[in-house]
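User: Predict structure, ligand LFVS4E46.
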Amino acid sequence: MAEKKVCEDLVKERKKCTFNVEELTRLIDGGEDKTMERREVEDMVINAGGLSTKDEVPEEYLSHKERYENAIRKASRLFEVFREYAKTHDTTDAFSPTNKYRVSFGVVKDISPFMLHMGMFVPTLMNQSDPDQVAEWLPKALSMQYIGTYAQTELGHGTFLRGLETTATYDPSTEEFVLNSPTLTSYKWWPGGLAHTANHCVVVAQLYTKGVCHGVHPFLVQIRDLETHMPLEGIKVGEIGPKLGFQTANNGFLGFNHYRIPRRSMLMKNAQVLKDGTYIKSKNDKLTYGTMVFVRVLIVTDLAYELSRAGTIAVRYSAVRHQSQPKPNEPEPQILDYVTQQHKLFIGVATSHAFRVTGNWLWNSYSKVIKDVSKGNMDQLPELHALACCLKAVCSRDAAARVEEFRLACGGHGYMASSNLPIINGIVTATITYEGEFTVLMLQTARFLVKAWKEATTGKVKTPTVSYLVEFFKNDRVIWENTPSTMIKGFQAIAAGKIRTAYETLEKHVKSGMDYEDAWNSASVQLVNASEAHCRAILTEISWKEMVRLSTTVSPSLAQVLLQLAELYLIYWTLEKRGDHLMYSTITRDDIQKLQTRYEELLALIRPNAIGLVDAFDVRDEILNSTLGAYDGRVYERLMEEALKSPLNAEPVNQSFHKYLKPLMLKAKL
Ligand SMILES: CC/C=C\C/C=C\C/C=C\C/C=C\C=C\C(=O)SCCNC(=O)CCNC(=O)[C@H](O)C(C)(C)COP(=O)(O)OP(=O)(O)OC[C@H]1O[C@@H](n2cnc3c(N)ncnc32)[C@H](O)[C@@H]1OP(=O)(O)O
Ligand SMILES: Cc1cc2nc3c(=O)[nH]c(=O)nc-3n(C[C@H](O)[C@H](O)[C@H](O)COP(=O)(O)OP(=O)(O)OC[C@H]3O[C@@H](n4cnc5c(N)ncnc54)[C@H](O)[C@@H]3O)c2cc1C
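Assistant: Predicted complex:
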C-alpha cells in the first residue's frame, strides 16, 4: 500500500525543530543501544502474527466478556513473542524503569490481564522467597505455568494492612497452613488477573501459629486446577465487575473455606515457620511490604511514560487543528499558536521529563538501599519508604491533572475513545489509589518528616533528603533572586516552614491533652500539606539538577532545549506556589511579574520545538492508538475511518426505529 501523506502542518513543524530528535530519543531511552533494542522489540511485536489491531473492530464495541477474551488472546500471543525473544536476548530489564516491554500497549490497549503477573507476582516471588523457593517457583512463573497475581486488598481493608482478616493458621500435625476467609469483608477484592486468568496468587494473610497471631505474611497459593482451570475445592473466585478504567485487567475476588496449603507455601526469605510451628521473626517486619515499595518506585517513571503518550497526542493534534480567526482576512491559526494552549501543553511535556529523571534517580536510590538491606543494613529504609510514598502520591496526582489538561486541550475530539485519551486517563487516575492511596501515603511521609524535624532541632539530620531543614534554622526566609537555585531553596524553605507549622500544631494538640493519635488526626491536613511541600522540594531540586547534568552530555542545541524545559517546570511551580513563596522568602510582586514574563518567553522558545519534543518520545502509532496523535497528522481522516467502524453504521436504519421511534411518531400524529 502506498504511504499516506503526512499532513502539511506537521511537515512544516518538523522543519522548524532546532535540535536532533533522535539524540533526545536516545537520551530518554538511556542510550543508543537501548533505543535500538526497544525498536527491535517493537518491530518484532508489531509485525508478529495475531497481534495487529489495525483491521479489528475497536475493542470499545465488544461486550465485557468479549473484551476480556480478546485481551487474553493477545496477551498470550504477546507472551509467546517475548518468550521467543528471550531465547536469544537478555531480558533482565523487564523490571527496570526504562523497560522495552511498554510495547504491550500496542497490543492490549487498556491494562493487560497479565499486568499483575509481571508487575507484582513475579517480583514478590523473586524478593520474598528463600533460595529453594525461588529455584522451584520462579521458572514456573516466568514460563507462565504459574499465572499469578498479588492478592492483598480485601473488601473491608486495603489501606490498613494490619487489619486484614484472611487467616493462615499453621497445623503442625499435617505441616500445612489452613487459609480461611472468616467474614464477607475478608474476601480478597481487586487483584488484577485474579478473576479468570490466574491459577496461583501471592495471598497476604494473618499468620497464626501455636495460637499466636504474628501479623500479615505472604503465601503462594494455587487457586485453579492446572489442567481444567476450575477453581479448586475450598476456593471461591470471580470478577468484581466494570470500573472507571482497567476494563481488561480482570480484577477479581477470592474467598477461602478452610483451604489447606503446604508449610513451604509461605514465602520464607524474611520470616519462617518451622515444622513444629515455631515462628522465626524477620529482621524487619516491614520487609513484607517490599513489593509495594518496588512498585511505588516504578510508578514514577511509568507516569512519565503515560504523560509522553498523552502529550504526543495533544501536541500533534494542536499542530493540525486550526480554529478561530483572530485577525480578519487571515487564515485560522493552528491552535498550538495560542499561548493559552502552549500553557496547557508544554508543562505536561516538561513534567514528563521531570518525572522520568526523578524516577530514574529514585530507582538508583532504591537499588542502593535494597543492596544494603540484603546485607542486613536497614538504616536507609525509612527514608526510602518516605520518598517512595510522597513521590508516588504527588506524581500520580499531578500526572492525572496533566492528562486531563491534555484531553481538554483537544476539545471535543479529546473526549472520543478513539483519541485514546480516555483510556490513558483511566490508567493514570487509578495510580492515585492503587499501591497505597494518596492521602494515606502522604501521611506516611509526614511521620518521617515529623521525626526529621525533631532531629533537625538538635542541629543535625541523618538523612540527606531532609538536610534542608537544618538550613532553615539558620535562615527561615530565603533572600530571593530569580534564579533556579533560589527557587529550589524557596521550595525547601516552604517545606521546612510547613513541616514546622504542622509539627507545632501537633504539639499544641498534644499539650492541650489530646491523645497523640487524635492530635495527629486534627493536624493531618497540615501534615499532608507538609508532605506535598517536601515532595515539591525533592521534585524541583532533583529534576533541575538531573536535567542540568544531562545537558552537559549532549549537543549544545539539545542542551538548550533541556534547560528550557527544566526552567519551565521550575517557574511553573514557583508561580503556582507564589503564595507560599511570599511567606517563606523575600520574593516581591515585581519578582513574580518577571517570572511570569520569563515563563511566557519560555513558551515562545519551546513553541518551534513542540513537535520535535513529542516526536522524540518516539511512541509509535501502533502503541499510541490514537486518531488525534498519529505521526502523519491525518486527524480528520482517522476520526471518520474510526467512526465508520461503529456497528451502528453497518445499516442505514436501525431496527429500533420500527420498534420504538415509529410508534412514538405515530402517536404524536393522533
Ligand atoms: C502508570 C503506571 C503503570 C504501571 C506501574 C507499574 C507496575 C504496576 C503493577 C501493578 C499495579 C497494579 C495494581 C495495583 C496493585 C495494588 O494496589 S496491591 C495493594 C497495595 N496496597 C497498599 O499499598 C496498601 C497501603 N498500606 C500500607 O502500605 C501500609 O499499611 C501503611 C499505610 C504503610 C501502614 O502500615 P502499618 O499500619 O503496618 O504501619 P504503621 O503502623 O502505619 O507504620 C509502622 C512503621 O512502619 C513504617 N512503614 C510502613 N510501610 C513501610 C514500608 N513499606 N517500608 C518501610 N517502612 C514502612 C511506617 O512508616 C512506620 O514507621 P514509623 O513512623 O517509624 O513508626
Ligand atoms: C485499579 C485498581 C487496581 C488494584 N489492584 C490491586 C491488586 O492487584 N492487588 C491488591 O491487593 N489490591 C489492588 N487494588 C487495591 C488498592 O491497593 C486499594 O484500593 C488501595 O490501597 C486503597 O485502599 P482502600 O480501597 O482500602 O481505600 P480506603 O483506605 O478505604 O480509602 C478510602 C478513603 O479513606 C481515607 N483513609 C483511609 N485510611 C486513612 C487514614 N489512616 N488516614 C486518613 N485517611 C484515610 C483515604 O484517604 C480515602 O480517602 C487495586 C485498586 C485499584 C483501584
